[in-house]
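Hey everyone, long-time lurker, first post.

I ran two proteins through the pipeline my lab uses and got sequence/structure pairs for each. Pasting them in order. The first:
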Amino acid sequence: SANILLGVAGGFGASIPAPGHVHHNGMELIRLGEMQGGVTARLESVAAVWKDAGFNVKTFEDINQLIWEKFLCNVAMSGAAAAFGITIGDVIENPVTWKIAQHLANEAYAVGKAKGVHFSFDDPVQYVKDFGSKMPKAKPSMLLDLQDQRVTEVDAINGMVPVVAEQVGLSAPYNEAVTAMIEAKESFFA
């Protein structure tokens, strides 16, 4: 962490529809914070550069909380959507995939709590559902990667939950299974 300048929790999405072309899926807010907490002059200086470039930026006391909250949504929605080849709305609407997404979210939430994360909510399932309901037609980047036969970032999302779970004496079997499913898909073209 000595080489990490700041933490960022982005409120936007993007995709690569073709080589050399990037599609921006909307910009909400870029959240910046010191990894050790607090708002420093360095943080404000970096935020000013982003703002001067036209971005909507805000600094936060506890960026770790925001990173984990975004991580939770990625774990549940991106993991399930990629594993089953469906949109976020389909994840929520299908009782079977929604149940799996709930387990993914609950495992990540338990791990975060054990790591001392101060979430802004007590119900991770409702939080993830509220997030996903805003973009039912969205295809997360891991799903888009699989559709284009590219290796995903599953190791840093669902694959990371069991790793951190083990560090805090927990397990994450649903995240292990979803990681294995996505890695199996990757093995056909990687």
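...and the second, right after it:
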Amino acid sequence: MRLGRLARRQDFHRLRRVGRRYQLGTMWVVVAPTETVSGDEQSAAVRVAFAIPRRAGTAVERNRFRRRVREALRVSAVAPGSYLIGPREGKLDASFAAIRADVTRLEHLGEFPREDP
């Protein structure tokens, strides 16, 4: 599955307004379902943004966390929507297995229906 990016200001305002917040083992996540226009595949995509402060770690560590989360989302069956993700305190260096386990938990939270692979 291809992941999209959240970049527009109104997307972030919508996340703040209607998004659900979750604390997982390695990360925190704000999730908002996507309003799809019938047959519009672009609006049904998983769109992701990251909020990782510089004080969390070096650029290499922050980018590694982003890559691991993106890959875990790509191979998972999370529901289409907008996701704002950040590492929990001290978890920037979490292993891919731990991040993948948290994404699996995110799939099963039950608020949004799972997408058929």
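Reply from user beta_strand_b:
Welcome! Quick read of the second one: The helical segments are 9-18, 59-74, 96-107. Residues 14 and 31 are 10 Å apart (CA to CA).
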